[in-house]
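Cross-check.
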Amino acid sequence: MPFRTMTTLRTWIDEFRASGYDDAEMLRVIPQDEEDGEDAGLVAAKLRSVSTTFYIAPGAEQGSTEWAVTFEPRENAAPLPAGRVMALSGELATLAALCSFLQARSEAFVAAGAHDHD
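Predicted model, tokenized:
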């Protein structure tokens, strides 16, 4: 899908950062391996409160505009004191807002493409 290109995702992440989320600097667009060689990307997030890596990607179904956060597996337990849990909750809220933002952008992108073909 064209809205998964590195260029489009970088533009959308810049727009999201400009909207004022404090934790938005943790986001970066990285290449996503695709069999068809497309310039696809996904969004990676390196949280400050935990060492787990997260990434945000669109749904796997053809035509899906939904985005989801994937939590990479950990080898060890990660006990967190109250302050770090509070920081984590803020970072996770930013990721949830980003998913909603990307879904809205994706839906608008698909709708605009549908109108281009009318």
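The mean pLDDT is 85. The chain is about 40% helix and 20% strand. Passed to J.P. for a second look.
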